Amino acid sequence: MSPTSTPSTRPQLAHLSAQLDDLRARGTYFRLRVLEDEQASVCHYDGREVINLASNNYLGLCNHPKLREAAIAATEKYGVGSGAVRTIAGTMRIHMELEEKIAAFKGVEACVVFQSGFAANAGTVSSILGKEDFILSDELNHASIIDGARLSRAKIKVFRHKDVAHAEELLKEIQNEPGRKLVITDGVFSMDGDIGPVAQLCDLCDKYGAIMMVDDAHASGVLGRNGRGSVDHFGCTQRVDVQVGTLSKAIGALGGYVCGSRDLIDYLYHRARPFLFSTSHPPSVAATCIAAFDLLESEPERIERLWSNTRYFQEQLKIAGFDIGGKTTPASETPITPILIGDGRKTMDFSRALFEQGLMATGIAFPTVPEGKARIRCIMTSEHTRQQIDQALEILTTTAKRLEIL
């Protein structure tokens, strides 16, 4: 075995060490927790059995037998990789089948699959607009939307969270300016769990001739008929020009996608840089996702369990005295349930104490959320049992009282 050496930071990167020291001083430095078995409602992180309230595995599909079978069968038939980007030699029949499956599920003309939800957002926004155009974005939109907007070089205008009147003010200001106007909102906001005003923003886009785009990452598999998302929830399928979704959360695998008109998708095939310059999904991932969309149609009871668990969990948190939004932050309307603490250090200490007691509940602090709005973000799934939820509530309550949070 070769001798090990102590890693050191060269002077050229000393500024990174200084910033890490600042995180430690603030109490918000963290280490990655390592999952040692499958993603489930109870699993093992860092050698400890915990109730898992930190996963995006809303419907328990990460380890569903039918998805496992689909992945294994595709691997045996097609191998483990595609070998190229989609535009050269890496488009396999199974990739096209997945895109056709999603388009049919969403009720649109076409779909393109990206390597991640982040790539889908950033690649789409940056490719369909240019420096002469305008983007109107909710102030709490996901980082991938923000980065895509910056990459597009379009002029960015930010409207107050879910403030449709403010969005209209901004549209009025620029309605006579040359260039296209794009309005973007999350369908479900990832930190507070509230639902975007999709229908009202569609009204604005119709009125001012703007392009309407919705990121439905946390709404996919959660809202709408059989989990078709917030766009379907509001009956706006034919009014939203660009629908973005994810294959990495409720669908249980990996990737992102964009749905819309045939011309939109053909254009993204030609111009979306993440699509053009990234190797396509392994066939096992595509097969897994196809199986997941079949399950959304055949097992709607999973979504019903998800919402039943969510309502119970949130009701019990309120009874216990936790702030889960609605005062200084938006109220959660979905399985994403923030427990507002405020102070970053106190939040991270609370999260670590919960873990020691057998509960995986992640602390979220600045810069992911604004200063003073740190929280424990809990996510309910369809697979949590009532006994597990009650045990999680007991751990949350007793630990919060011990730390004088309650």
CATH class of the largest domain: Alpha Beta
Q: Which shape, going by the Cα principal axes?
A: globular
Q: For the residues shown, what is the average pLDDT?
A: 95
Give the ordered list of helices and strands: HEEHHEHEHEHEHEHEEHHHHEHEEEH
Question: Over the alpha carbons, how many angstroms does the gyration radius reach?
Answer: 22 Å
Major sheet: order of its strands? 3-9-8-7-6-4-5
| Helix fraction bin | 40-55%
- Structural category is alpha/beta
Q: How many beta-strand elements?
A: 13
- Spans with pLDDT under 50 lasting ≥5 residues? none
The total domain count is 2
User: What name goes with the CATH superfamily of the largest domain?
Assistant: Type I PLP-dependent aspartate aminotransferase-like (Major domain)
Tally of helical segments: 14
Strand content: 15-25%
Question: Would you kindly provide a written description of the structure presented here, covering whatever features stand out?
Answer:
The mean pLDDT is 95. The chain has 2 domains: 27-58 and 300-402, Alpha-Beta Complex (Aspartate Aminotransferase, domain 1), CATH 3.90.1150.10; 63-298, Aspartate Aminotransferase, domain 2 (3-Layer(aba) Sandwich). It has 406 residues and is of the alpha/beta class. The radius of gyration is 22 Å and the shape is globular. Helices cover 42% and strands 16% of the residues. The relative contact order is 0.16. Residues 49-395 form the Aminotransferase class I/classII large domain. It holds the Pfam family Aminotran_1_2.
